[in-house]
Amino acid sequence: MFDALTDRLSGVFDQLTGRGALSEKDVDAALREIRVALLEADVALPAVKDFMSRVREQAVGERVIRAVAPGQQVVKIVHDELVVLLGGEGEPEGLALAGEPPVAILMAGLQGSGKTTTTAKLALRLTSREKKKVLVASLDTRRPAAMEQLAQMAQKAGVACLPIVKGQSAVEIAKRAMSAARLQGFDVVILDTAGRTSIDEEMMAEAARIAEIARPRETLLVADALTGQDAVETARRFHERLPLTGLVLTRMDGDGRGGAALSMRWVTGLPIKFLGVSEKVDGLDAFDARRLAGRILGRGDIVSLVEKAAAEVDQDQAERLARKMAKGKFDLEDFRQQLAQLKKMGGLASIMGMMPGMNKAARAQVAASGFDDKAIARQEAIILSMTPEERAKPDILKASRKRRIAMGAGVEVPEVNKLIKMHRQMADMMKKAGQGKGLPGMPGGGRMPPGMGGPGMGGAGLDAAAADLLKGRAPSGAGGLPGLPGAGGLSRPPSSGGFPGLPGLPGGKTKR
Ligand SMILES: Nc1nc2c(ncn2[C@@H]2O[C@H](COP(=O)(O)OP(=O)(O)OP(=O)(O)O)[C@@H](O)[C@H]2O)c(=O)[nH]1
Ligand SMILES: [Mg+2]
Question: Among residues 111, 21, 112, which one has the least CA distance to residue 72?
Answer without folding.
Answer: 21
